[in-house]
Amino acid sequence: WLDPQARFLTFVLLATFAVVVGYVLNSYPGLAQSIPLPYPALGGLVRVADKSELIDIPRSAGVFLALNLILAVVLHPWERMVSIVLLLAGIALQVTLLVASIVALT
């Protein structure tokens, strides 16, 4: 990877993944065993769930990270712009999962 933009975006993608995992794992030990998960868009519906379900957020972030990185590396020799778009989409997805974890834990 001699492309400096792709390397930078890869670093940002890995950093946002680390922030998502770090935030959830840092907050996890202090949580009660059952936590309320509010759904304000559905009329204030609140679902009470086990705190282990929050581990799905960093797990999903890891799956999307691996998928985006693999596709970006494979497709970069053929089409650089596709690789850049995949990395940017991965960053946006990681930020979305970070916001979801912040909303779930507050």
What can you see in these coordinates?
The protein is mainly α. Helices cover 66% and strands 11% of the residues. The chain is built from three helices and two strands. It has a two-stranded antiparallel sheet with strand order 1-2. A hairpin with a 5-residue loop joins strand 1 and strand 2. Helix 1 packs parallel to helix 3. The longest helix has 26 residues, at 80-105. The radius of gyration is 16 Å and the shape is elongated. It starts with a helix and ends with a helix. 23% of the residues are buried. The mean pLDDT is 85.
Which sequence of strands runs across the widest sheet?
1-2
**Continuous helix count:** 3
Cα shape: elongated
Q: Mean of residue pLDDT?
A: 85
Low-confidence stretches: none
Q: Report, as a whole number of angstroms, the end-to-end distance.
A: 40 Å
Question: Mind describing the biggest β-sheet?
Answer: 2 strands, antiparallel
**How large a portion of the residues is in β-strands, by DSSP E?**
5-15%
**Strand-and-helix sequence, N→C?**
HEEHH
Q: What is the helix content? A: 55-70%
The whole-angstrom Rg is 16 Å
Number of strands: 2
Structural class: mainly alpha
Give the topology, please.
Layout lengths: L3 H24 L6 E6 L5 E6 L5 H20 L4 H26 L1
Helix pairs in contact: 1-2, 1-3, 2-3
Quick gist of this model?
By secondary structure, the protein is mostly helical. The protein is 66% helix and 11% strand. The N and C termini lie far apart (40 Å).
Task: List descriptors.
2 strands, mainly alpha, two-stranded antiparallel ribbon, 106 residues, elongated, 3 helices
